Amino acid sequence: MPFRHESGDEEVMAYIVPNSDNVTAESIIDYCIERMPSFWIPSYIIFVQSLPKTPLGRTEKYKLRVNVLPPGTKDMHDYIKKSCIVRKDLKNRF
For 5-63, how does the pLDDT look when each residue is reduced to its tens digit (9 = 90+)? Predict the structure, then answer.
């Protein structure tokens, strides 16, 4: 899902529902590097318990962005600044 910074730049944010305790942000990034073009590789990884769905089974993206914010966090920009998610460094990965 795209994430637009306050500066206007966009990066990819991935919401992951892990299927085991062994899933890490690093393993997700490695998987993506092997299988995706570089512009699809997420800059941010957020682990969630489940994805909010509409009655038709589609993911409710707005609710996903709002529901992951912990109490006391005003918006997603504040959430990122508090380092509650993993930022990848691709400079040394390619």
Answer: 667 777 788 888 888 888 888 888 889 989 999 888 888 888 888 888 999 999 888 77
How many residues are given for the chain?
A: 94
How distant, in Å, are the alpha carbons of 9, 76, 93 from that of 89? 17, 20, 8
> Distances in Å between the alpha carbon of 43 and those of 28, 54, 58, 81?
11, 26, 23, 14
In 20-89, which ranges are continuous DSSP H helix?
25-35, 61-67, 76-81
Amino acid at 18: P
Q: Specify whether the backbone of 72 is left (phi greater than 0), alpha (psi in -120 to 50) or beta.
A: left
Q: Does residue 44 contact residue 86 with C-beta atoms inside 8 Å?
A: yes
